[in-house]
Amino acid sequence: MSRTTTLQTTQNTALQGELSPDSILQLAFGFWASKALLTAVSLDLFSTLSQAPLDADSVTSRLGLHPRGTRDWLDALVALRLLERQDGLYRNSPDSELFLDRAKPTYIGGMIEMMDRRLYGYWGRLTEALKTGHPQNEVLNSRDPDLDLFAALYADPDRLRHFLGAMTGISRMTARAIAAAFDWSEVGSFVDVGCAQGGCTVEIARTHPHLTGIGFDLQEVEPVFTDYIRACGLTDRIRFEGGSFFAQPIPAAEVIVMGHILHDWDLAQKRVLLAKAYAALPTGGRLIVYDAMIDDQRREHAFGLLMSLNMLIETNGGFDYTGADCLGWMREAGFRDGRVTPLTATHSMAVAIK
Q1: Cβ contacts of residue 219 below 8 Å, gap of 6+?
Q2: Reported CATH class of domain 111-353
């Protein structure tokens, strides 16, 4: 069958209603819905409505908005199942109430705030990233060829604090899943490598009161980490250790956790980090690596593949990977008995033994 005949057949099938461009168009317009949500978090709409339901005029006044677009925006959020409306009053949906109210410990909006302030604009340069292979974020116009994302972020205390809070937002539910899925009963200590604010460190320690933990990250992180650990009431069991995991040994413990770390680096750097984890563990110690691991066939896990594109935009050489990739690198480093366990709809962990 010729290409022309195939095209005509496809067109006829589409005209008969068997095919539709709707899913393609919905995907193309997806940034509309995304920006409606990002803006709502940025304006703290959900925290405001958590205090009391409001009508459109009250939302307009409370958030300092212009009346022209507010009602359409609020009703769009209703249609997106982020808000509910009854008798003209808007309130949070159950999911929004739990995860998007800044006052609740389940708040994930820190990551969404960062997406609005940073990633939304940088993803507008995906074409340039694909053509050049270079990051499209704060380092884009730097005169320092060695500058990376973390050096740029960590140089600004306010931007660093915001970034670290975002990491807690994206890691909290995954950390809870790790606390439940991994057998911590015969473990006494762990190190959270690249601990950021301490979101994962806290969830594991809070679930298992017999554990002591170390958060290991660059020295600039210490004030943010310490404040968070103090607020969570865990200063008696969790401490911070500052350093670069490339320049210094990883602190010793029975379990090492690396979450959202390997995907930041190129393959050679990934292998270095796994080798350093192996060196830091005792015989029988275990390494936990978690990321948005791509399915082994690279066909289904769109989030993991898009996260890898985010690493293209954000880092000099980072990329996401499959569970099979990770287990292979672990074996190369000397680990044994590796396995991959799904944790959430987007994340999995690979666990192996020294």
Answers
A1: 242, 243
A2: alpha beta
Note the pLDDT of residue 143. Answer: 61
List, by residue number, the catalytic residues.
263
What pLDDT is attached to residue 3?
Answer: 55
- Partners of residue 239 on adjacent β-strands: 214
Please name the fold of domain 21-99: Arc Repressor Mutant, subunit A (1.10.10)
Q: Is 224 exposed, middle or buried (0-12, 13-18, 19+ CB in 10 A)?
A: buried
Q: pTM above the 0.90 mark?
A: no
The 10s digit of each residue's pLDDT in 314-325 is 999 999 999 999
**Cβ 316 vs Cβ 273: under 8 Å:** no
Beta strands in 68-186 (DSSP E): 83-86, 89-92
Domain boundaries, the chain: 21-99, 111-353
CB 43 within 8 A of CB 66: no
111-353 and 21-99 share a CATH fold: no
